[in-house]
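quick one before i forget lol
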Amino acid sequence: MSPRDFYEMLRSLTDLGRPVAVATVIRSSGSVPRRIGAKMIVAARGETYDTIGGGSFEALVTEDALETLTTGQAVLKRYTFSEQGEDSVGQVCGGTVEVLIEPILPAERLLILGAGHVAQALARCVAGLGLEVLVADDRAEYLRPELFPPSTRLIPTDPTFSKDMPAPDERTYVAIVTRCHDTDREALARTLSGHPRYVGLIGSQRKKVKLLRELEGAGFPRALLDQVRCPIGLDIGAETPAEIAVAIVAELIRERRTARTLTSVPEPG
């Protein structure tokens, strides 16, 4: 694969939102299959594009690359082409290579359901955290671009939060801040039918009890519903939209330091 073809393949995979790792030979000595600069792409299911040597060596690099997709951390690994030893690849060439393995993960995103005052403050407050921000609402008058930072993706939807909505996945944090109980219920039901990393719902404990009881009656498992954060945000005594936004962002930062993803369930039918 030519360098141009390699980078075009890398671009196409990342544009699709697929997590990949790039393995690059950065040092070598002795007899080795490929020299400095050889590259390989490893995708999340173990598919590889191009090669840095093949055989058991490439299989070990693939295994290490998949690990970086879990940790999110780049690693520098040393491999020895001998039959024994800690770094051995089970071959007899006698050389050694060092491979830099760099994960390229899809951007995490914050999906804000509702576009009112809290949503507007939250979109502004989360700037700088490296999150893609999406805001969905069925009210066109609240989705005016001038109310949100320029990079915010605005999604006109319907009151059930079904139309044109992205499916929440393991890289999605969801903040439900809609206008009323009914739309909160619809938004939460839609969210919990996906695979969100985190779901927070604005409101009181009393509201949480009532709403979760309704969704449990609709078929959602109690264990899943109990993972919903309500009231959303850390308890800092927030009252104004700006203060509530700060509390939500603080909780999001804490969540990003964990590896927790909500268990998904099929949408009740």
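fyi The helical segments are 3-15, 55-71, 117-125, 181-192, 205-217, 222-225, 241-256.
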